[in-house]
């Protein structure tokens, strides 16, 4: 990098161009530092209104950053040049709820009735926690964050219903308080934790057995904090088994031009 | 009250006038609803600089709302008519660290070298928690909040040093997160908790045996939250045993014209 100033706006666009050219096909974690990355859900228009209302009813697991119009693969609110058919490194294509393909490009699958939904992702609040000097144990261990199905129901909308899924990060008590303060500033990316300590109260019986991700031990001098997780809508959609649905592959997100700091409400 | 609009500015002034006339000599809890009440410390000028620096170093237990000038019994920052010699319902007078008198008026004791310090009090953040619909168990039980000496040292200044004292209120996990958010808005009245859960980590071995106040049970589905407490400077001053010192009697605070909501930083 030397002394040349980094054009960080260019950096997000450049990452997307490399993704579009097929040069990046894996995880986006750490790319375009400081930029918002989004969870991707693409549904036929017939399901769009119910899913949109599901997000409105459940803003903590489903914080909507942008919704496209039917058939339009642009999303100028998140980046002037975004093309939803090519700009996610790897997609997952579901037919009747069954995973049928994991392409790096969905131009051959695009339809005039498809609607794109971009949901905020924990990368943004993890960025804010790291910027404040906190340590994320799962990251230090090189593991995925542990995620759990809870006994907390989401508010249903049309066919969409199911339990809230949470991700867990543990901190010493004073840092747990700081983590609540920091993530409270970011309601657009899951916001404050939904639960702290006492996992059994939300139906989590064994922290060592996450339903998704990797187990990460909670030391005796730390408390587990639970945040609403973007896996919630994915699990809910999997239950609905829509005729057709496309999502990002896990960890392979849409890189946007928004800065994480722009999502802070104060 | 009927339909007449309440002049709440007048209410705080009127409470002080009744205190001044000796008509109110006890607790001020619940008086002049929504107005800030303050802890009172009056020290000889020879100790004022060290105590002021102690407050600056320890803003969570010692949130300074106002400091008078030596010999001046007015405090216009907190109320145009305040007279520190008459406007606290009941005072405590210490000589060499020994409680010698609990008068309702200190005009006969006032000296040209006395400096008044007013520190924020938990009544303000408790008001904010109650306004948000949270329940304070100690209040529901008609008890004083339990307070504990911790293993956390304050930052010393001159002769002033000693452990942090905390007050404890317990909440169910989601309400505990809400309580962190609400009290974070009020750094001028102790602010966010300093600790949550795991009392042994801050040297509190038995919640059932508070060092001050009354024991209040923590149900199995709640977490104890610990806030820095205004008893900290009182305990620290008691150790210093100053030649002369006047404080408010417990629960018998200075009622100011400030609104609690004015202390919210966002």
In summary, what is this structure?
With 266 residues, chain A is of the alpha+beta class. Chain A has 6 helices and 11 strands. In chain A, 23% of the residues lie in helices and 24% in strands.
Descriptive account of the structure:
Chain A is α+β, with helices and mostly antiparallel strands and 266 residues long. Chain A has 2 domains: 8-120 and 241-263, PSTPO5379-like, CATH 3.40.1640; 123-233, PSTPO5379-like domain (PSTPO5379-like fold), CATH 3.30.2040.10. The first copy, chain A, has 6 helices and 11 strands. In chain A, the strands form 2 sheets. In chain A, strands 1, 2, 3, 4, 5, 10 and 11 form a 7-stranded antiparallel sheet that branches. A 4-stranded antiparallel sheet of chain A has the order 6-7-9-8. In chain A, a hairpin with a 2-residue loop joins strand 3 (91-95) and strand 4.
Topology:
The structure is a homodimer of 266-residue chains.
Chain A: H1 8-20, E1 35-44, H2 45-57, E2 64-67, E3 91-95, E4 98-101, E5 114-120, H3 122-131, H4 137-140, E6 147-153, E7 163-171, H5 173-184, E8 195-196, E9 223-228, H6 231-240, E10 244-248, E11 254-259
Antiparallel strand pairs in A: 1-5, 1-10, 1-11, 2-5, 3-4, 3-10, 6-7, 7-9, 8-9
């Amino acid at each position: 990098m030397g002394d040349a100033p980094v054009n960080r706006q260019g950096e997000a666009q450049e990452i997307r161009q490399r993704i579009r050219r097929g040069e990046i096909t894996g995880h986006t974690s750490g790319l375009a530092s400081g930029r918002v990355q989004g969870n991707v859900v693409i549904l036929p228009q017939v399901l769009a209104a119910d899913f949109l209302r599901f997000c409105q009813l459940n803003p903590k697991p489903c914080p909507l950053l942008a919704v496209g119009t039917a058939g339009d693969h642009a999303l100028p609110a998140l980046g002037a040049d975004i093309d939803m058919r090519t700009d996610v490194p790897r997609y997952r294509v579901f037919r009747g709820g069954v995973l049928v393909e994991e392409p790096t490009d969905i131009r051959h699958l695009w339809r005039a009735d498809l609607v794109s939904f971009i949901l905020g992702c924990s990368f943004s609040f993890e960025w804010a926690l790291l910027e404040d000097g906190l340590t994320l144990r799962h990251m230090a261990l090189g593991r995925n964050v542990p995620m759990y199905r809870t006994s907390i129901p989401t508010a249903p909308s049309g066919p969409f219903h199911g339990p809230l899924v949470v991700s867990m990060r543990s901190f010493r008590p004073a840092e747990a308080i700081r983590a609540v303060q920091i993530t409270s500033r970011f309601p657009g990316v899951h916001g404050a934790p939904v639960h702290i300590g006492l996992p059994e109260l939300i139906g989590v019986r064994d922290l060592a057995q996450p339903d998704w991700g990797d187990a990460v031990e909670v030391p005796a001098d730390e408390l587990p904090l639970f945040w609403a997780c973007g896996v919630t809508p994915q699990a809910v959609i999997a239950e609905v088994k829509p005729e057709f649905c496309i999502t990002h592959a896990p960890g392979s997100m849409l890189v946007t031009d928004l800065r994480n700091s722009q999502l802070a409400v104060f």
